[in-house]
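Table S5 (text form). Sequence records supplied for joint modeling of the two-component complex.
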Amino acid sequence: MHKLWFALLALSPAFSSAQSAEESFPAASNVPGSVSPAIHRDGRVTFTLKAPQASSLQVAGGDGLGHGPFALIKGIDGTWSVTIAPPVPGFHYYWFVLDGAPVNDPGSRTYFGYSKETSGIEIPEAGADFYALRNVPHGQVREQWYLAATTSQWRRALVYTPPGYDEHPAKRYPVLILQHGMGEDETGWTRQGKAQFILDNLIAAGKARPMIVVMDRGYAGAPGAPPFALTANTTLGDIQRAFGRFSDVVIHDLIPTIDASYRTIADREHRALAGLSMGGMQTLFIASHHLDSFAYIASLSGPIIRGTDPGEQFAASLRGPFDTKTAYDGLFADPAKFNREVKLLWLGVGSEEAQLHASISDAAAALRDSGIRVAFFESPGTAHEWQTWRRDLNDIAPRLFR
Amino acid sequence: MHKLWFALLALSPAFSSAQSAEESFPAASNVPGSVSPAIHRDGRVTFTLKAPQASSLQVAGGDGLGHGPFALIKGIDGTWSVTIAPPVPGFHYYWFVLDGAPVNDPGSRTYFGYSKETSGIEIPEAGADFYALRNVPHGQVREQWYLAATTSQWRRALVYTPPGYDEHPAKRYPVLILQHGMGEDETGWTRQGKAQFILDNLIAAGKARPMIVVMDRGYAGAPGAPPFALTANTTLGDIQRAFGRFSDVVIHDLIPTIDASYRTIADREHRALAGLSMGGMQTLFIASHHLDSFAYIASLSGPIIRGTDPGEQFAASLRGPFDTKTAYDGLFADPAKFNREVKLLWLGVGSEEAQLHASISDAAAALRDSGIRVAFFESPGTAHEWQTWRRDLNDIAPRLFR
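The corresponding structure-token record, covering 804 residues in total, follows.
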């Protein structure tokens, strides 16, 4: 619907392509002083790059930017440009393809995604200020270094402490562990997701309880190893091994570090685990073995595993009916016990995430039919992208620690 | 000398170009999993990029990388590569020039420099572990948002709190305000400079007093305005106006915010101001009007202004003899008073910063001759680059608040 509305605006005479320069503004994700990418008042976006010697230039990007790649046209001074139809509001990764090579836009800040530093564009959403930097008390985001015994490696977590944390040195807080997706890292939730501002705004409005939010790097490979990534040959067992090692880091290194370094309420009733995409898979995987550590669980656009055979290809393990008795090592096998122990099971997905939407909503229905209490949230008009996950967090945080 | 030593190694048979693949390792500044750039045991560096359709590719970079740009050679599979002579140890910005357009290396993390996200390479220095992540207690680096009345803008400072800060809620700490150079931002001192690890290591060794370090963005332009940058027409008056506005932010917004948000010792005897390059200029400029706010002053590779006429071109204002009576609005005119009030005046420069080295050492000599107590530090073998400034901080921090 959003796309349609923008498309209609773009077709109307009042929003024709004859926009003046004053009718556009630099994206908030640009480096200071860069006028490109420029967002027009009607939502269209113009990308510009000076490359006089280049033979071809396209812009391409993640879900929500549109059906690219889009070819830029070379001007007489060697500056290429293209104006594209209004993208979906929110944050989108993008990159240039310069004579065939994918490269960043020097006009943009970079954001860690696709396992590298990637350009990103912030498209404003009219009326949505829940993730804006507003004039409310602000928490802090802190770099927390710790030596993980599991991997014998120094790791860095980012830790959000709520407003007032330093002013009330006797007060203790519940903890949300919040994980990123594949190819991203511990910076994703604050840089792309604006989790700190979502929490600031919810806490200021009295809608969420002040809490500590811990964002770690969801990989735990050997020193120097590339981060975990899916291939066509990845089996369910490969996933379980990779997630198992990360689970060990969370349970044996991260949680003890956070409980020792911050004024937490260090019990399962005051600890939540959530993650997006791969992080959502990790959440259900970790919860299935460590329900003694978490009473709140949320999977945001997380693929739901149906299979139980470690030798099965991962892609195949996502297909078929969801058997609530056998899935996730029997996590959901006893609904009465699960409902007693788990204060919140939350599943969410964007309306435009075609297969994931079917898979997650089907699993949620099966869980509900089996007697499991489950919250299901759908982000309207968004796909596998950060605007979905920002809305998710805005829905989840008020439900925690109540 | 360093360069010569490396050059000799490179010429010796034991370090010939016939190195095996095992003889190289990915730079610590690479994105995880990227093997390029690769550093050879002899210090040479190989840059690689796959770009089958490109017609030309060079790598170029900041001081210390070498006398580039260096042309890459295209292999049969479309992968370009070049191996360059050992760069100076430390951190160097670099970028590819792909068919004439400067772009980042997708294999590298990015670092804010040259007013944009720029690739960087970390070249290890044998025996230098003062900026390494070591097994010592670590402080935290915190994002501190504040609304600056001077500019009516939200600003973000990064604040290092020393190890033990949270564990001792009654203890108060002195404050070092530490500024980046032109084209950089508040992230420079921690990402490129590793200031947090330098402080952690000094504090662990008992060489520096535990202190809070505040790193802000050294620009205070109107909302949306590009950050301050020098041009051929910039006058001394232009500089004074830009720095004056930033000075207002520091004095009227930043310091009150830090004193209200952290357990500082909020007097001039426990507050230091330091900066590199442009930040060094800002330090002397701000100190010349606000000696009531700082008792410790350090300018790291900061151009020394000789002129006093606001209409004079900035470049010209750097030339000529340094008149200790008139420079910086008379900051140094009364040596006895200055020495009474200022606990540390510190000037430093890299031995390879040709004009700056002459200018800064000349000013230091003139100050000393006039009776001003001044510490002068020279970083051997390094130019206008982060290895110089890491060494500077390692020299300065132990002298503060004693």
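Note: Chain B touches chain A through 51 residues (CB under 8 Å).
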